[in-house]
């Protein structure tokens, strides 16, 4: 019981003895913001010991729920083991390979052979590591949609490996001659000081190079076989802001062109000893084709020379103007109708073909067979073949060696000449060779009886100019040899140099390399556009060509094509170089093709067959500061299913016309620098 006491008149309650283990709580300051609530005192109890896991809500795994949970668990585990872990490994090693590939590209840009070989070794190691990791996700190529991309990656990795093997063999092969390609090595100097001495060294080594071509080609073909299985058109144009499809196409094109180049180079190397006169001296007829007055094989045959070649050393023997050669010739072969109809001049009285116009066939071999046979009657004998060059070769060589001087004729360079908006060397050559004025032929003999005073300058300049170019090119220090080699190689690939050889094996070699100017046989779609300037001065100096091909494949596989050719001449008429261009255009298409419509022609020929092709042809005029457009619509003689094959051949002497190609959703745009093949998926 509680006891009461009186303190100061106020009764007080005296607490009893506290219960054991109960400590009185300290008084708390009451908050004026919180309402006072009476809370009953808690009854003190001992805190029980609890199991946390047992306190969680229980989930029943009985029946279907248990099976689903187990299935989800197994799936997650499999996903981690089969996809996530291998995927992370592949991603990491892919980044490592990409970084190593950049290092390899940098070494190639630095053009140091030893560095390139070292980086190739490192890249192969990185590639092997990635391929090992990639084996764990190969099985996904059987999964719809993503499987095709995984399969492409597998093909790509294999192709990369074969490509590295080919590159390694190539570097080992070219190591003794690397300086010609502009590649530095750690090898000691070989003692050669001039370009001629270096060429002599390389020529002697050709027999040791040829066997290596087969090794390189074997690896290159393996790489091509893998890449051929990849379809870049199923990839997006861009992904995450980066170009995807176009870089893939360019890489595939580069590989295909490289494989083709290696394959074609072996027969040419095998023919090199004959061409260079290593076994015995050779003598060639050198034809100068003026590509500014375009003709079917590359240009009007304006001059010629006889050149002797012995042990890879070139020596001009004689040179002359084509008109002087023609003056000795008695025409006896009927001229093609477009020549006699539009050139007129000597053809007004006689419709027989002149020597200078005998390159009418777009097939250089066929044209030269006719020309050399007829030229024999006026003393052109004892030659082993014909080499034709145009003015672009001269420009390419002068770009490499710089300006040259020609005694009695001044200096020549590739600097722009404002008077013609063209390279200075072109302006000077045209000035020397083509002073304005009429040429009059005798109606009986066909000989020239009146001509401008400087018409004979072709004969005067051609010999000295050729000597100067040869002397300057071959006398250059060997450090300039890479630029010279590049100029020569570019001129060959772009058809500014053509060969017709009497020796069958040698001719097969130049044909294989694509420098014989032949119209090729092809199993698929084919296109070759051929233009002939029929008396339009030198208007091809300014005329440009743009080609659009629209290909429509019907459900039954039949094909209809529309080829539109746009010609432009942006310069003003000057009455000397630039005037109205009377142009005879021919397009060569697969044999049996059917013409649906032709537009833009002033004179249209009936379709005919030639060189195992069907030909559509006609005449139009392109005026200075004008535009002309010609369209041919036709049907192909065959049907296509999955793959569409197309070969486009470039006309010799032309620069690089712009082409547009459209097939369904596939669109291509490119400059045609050399013959080009396409394999498109429909």
Keywords:
alpha+beta; 7-stranded mixed sheet; Aminopeptidase; disordered N terminus; globular; 6-stranded mixed sheet; 682 residues; Immunoglobulin-like
Describe this structure in words.
- This is DUF4012 domain-containing protein.
- Pfam families: DUF4012.
- The chain crosses the membrane at residues 68-91.
- It comes from Candidatus Woesebacteria bacterium RBG_13_46_13.
- By secondary structure, the protein is an alpha+beta fold.
- It folds into 3 domains: 67-272, no CATH class; 282-512, Aminopeptidase; 525-681, Immunoglobulin-like (Sandwich), CATH 2.60.40.
- The protein contains 14 helices and 28 strands.
- Strands 16, 19, 21, 22, 23, 25 and 28 form a 7-stranded mixed beta sheet that branches. A 6-stranded mixed beta sheet has the order 20-24-18-17-26-27, with no helix packed on it.
- The longest helix has 47 residues, at 64-110.
List the helices and strands and how they pair.
Layout: E1 3-7, E2 10-14, H1 52-55, H2 64-110, H3 113-134, H4 146-174, H5 195-227, E3 238-239, E4 242-243, H6 245-275, E5 282-290, E6 300-310, E7 313-321, H7 322-327, H8 337-342, H9 364-375, E8 385-390, H10 391-401, E9 404-406, E10 410-412, E11 416-417, E12 422-423, H11 424-433, E13 440-441, E14 448-450, H12 457-474, H13 481-493, E15 497-501, H14 504-512, E16 525-533, E17 544-553, E18 558-569, E19 581-590, E20 594-599, E21 603-604, E22 608-610, E23 613-622, E24 626-639, E25 643-649, E26 658-663, E27 666-671, E28 676-681
Parallel strand pairs: 5-8, 16-25, 17-26
Antiparallel strand pairs: 1-2, 3-4, 5-6, 6-7, 8-15, 9-10, 11-12, 13-14, 16-19, 17-18, 18-24, 19-23, 20-24, 21-23, 22-23, 25-28, 26-27
Helix pairs in contact: 2-3, 3-4, 4-5, 5-6, 6-14, 10-13
């Amino acid at each position: 019981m509680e006891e009461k006491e009186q303190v100061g008149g106020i009764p007080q309650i005296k607490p009893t003895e506290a219960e054991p283990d109960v400590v009185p709580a300290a008084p708390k300051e009451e908050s004026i913001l919180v309402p006072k609530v009476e809370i009953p005192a808690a009854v003190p109890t001992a805190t029980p010991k609890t199991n946390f896991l047992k306190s969680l809500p229980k989930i029943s795994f009985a029946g279907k729920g248990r099976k689903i949970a187990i299935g989800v668990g197994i799936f997650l585990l499999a996903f981690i083991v089969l996809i996530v872990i291998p995927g992370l490994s592949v991603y990491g090693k892919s980044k490592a390979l990409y970084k190593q590939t950049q290092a390899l590209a940098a070494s190639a840009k630095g053009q140091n052979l030893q560095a390139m070989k070292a980086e190739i070794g490192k890249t192969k190691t990185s590639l092997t590591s990635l391929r090992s990791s990639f084996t764990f996700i190969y099985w996904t190529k059987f999964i719809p949609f993503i499987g095709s991309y995984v399969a492409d990656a597998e093909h790509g990795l294999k192709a990369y490996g074969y490509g590295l093997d080919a590159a390694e063999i190539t570097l080992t092969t070219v190591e003794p001659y690397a300086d010609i390609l502009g590649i530095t090595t750690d090898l000691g100097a070989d003692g050669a000081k001039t370009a001629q001495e270096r060429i002599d060294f390389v020529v002697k080594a050709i027999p040791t190079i040829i066997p290596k071509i087969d090794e390189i080609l074997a690896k290159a073909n393996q790489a091509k076989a893998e890449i051929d299985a990849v379809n870049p058109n199923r990839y997006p144009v861009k992904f995450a802001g980066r170009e995807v499809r176009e870089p893939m196409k360019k890489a595939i094109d580069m590989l295909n062109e490289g494989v083709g180049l290696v394959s074609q180079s072996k027969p040419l190397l095998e023919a090199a000893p004959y061409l260079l006169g290593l076994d015995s001296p050779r003598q060639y007829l050198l034809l100068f084709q003026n590509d500014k007055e375009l003709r079917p094989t590359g240009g009007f045959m304006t001059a010629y020379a006889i050149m002797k070649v012995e042990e890879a050393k070139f020596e001009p023997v004689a040179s002359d103007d084509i008109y002087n050669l023609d003056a000795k010739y008695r025409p006896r072969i009927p001229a093609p109708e477009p020549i006699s109809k539009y050139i007129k001049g000597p053809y007004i009285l006689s419709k027989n073909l002149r020597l200078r116009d005998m390159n009418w066939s777009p097939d250089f071999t066929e044209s030269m067979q006719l020309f050399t046979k007829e030229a024999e009657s006026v003393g052109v004998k004892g030659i082993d073949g014909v080499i034709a060059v145009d003015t672009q070769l001269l420009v390419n060589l002068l770009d490499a060696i710089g300006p040259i001087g020609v005694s009695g004729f001044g200096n020549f360079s590739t600097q722009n000449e404002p008077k013609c908006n063209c390279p200075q060397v072109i302006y000077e050559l045209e000035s020397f060779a083509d002073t304005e004025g009429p040429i009059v032929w005798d109606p009986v003999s066909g000989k020239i009886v009146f001509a401008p005073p400087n018409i004979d300058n072709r004969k005067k300049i051609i010999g000295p100019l050729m000597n100067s170019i040869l002397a300057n090119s071959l006398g250059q220090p060997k450090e300039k040899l890479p630029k010279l080699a590049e100029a020569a190689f570019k001129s060959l690939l772009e058809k500014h140099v053509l060969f017709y050889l009497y020796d069958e094996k040698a001719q097969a070699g130049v044909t294989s390399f694509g420098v014989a100017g032949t119209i090729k046989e092809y199993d698929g779609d084919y296109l070759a556009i051929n233009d002939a300037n029929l008396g339009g001065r030198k208007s091809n100096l300014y005329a440009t060509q743009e080609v659009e091909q629209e290909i429509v494949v019907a459900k039954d596989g039949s094909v209809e094509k529309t080829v539109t050719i746009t010609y432009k001449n942006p310069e003003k008429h000057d009455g000397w170089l630039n005037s109205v261009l009377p142009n005879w255009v021919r397009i060569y298409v697969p044999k049996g093709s059917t013409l649906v419509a032709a537009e833009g022609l002033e004179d249209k020929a009936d379709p005919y067959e030639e060189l195992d092709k069907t030909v559509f042809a006609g005449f139009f005029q392109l005026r200075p500061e004008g535009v002309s457009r010609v369209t041919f619509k036709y049907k192909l003689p065959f049907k296509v299913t999955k793959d569409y094959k197309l070969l486009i051949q470039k006309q010799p002497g032309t620069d690089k016309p712009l082409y547009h190609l459209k097939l369904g959703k596939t669109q291509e745009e490119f400059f045609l620098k050399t013959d080009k093949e396409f394999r498109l998926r429909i």
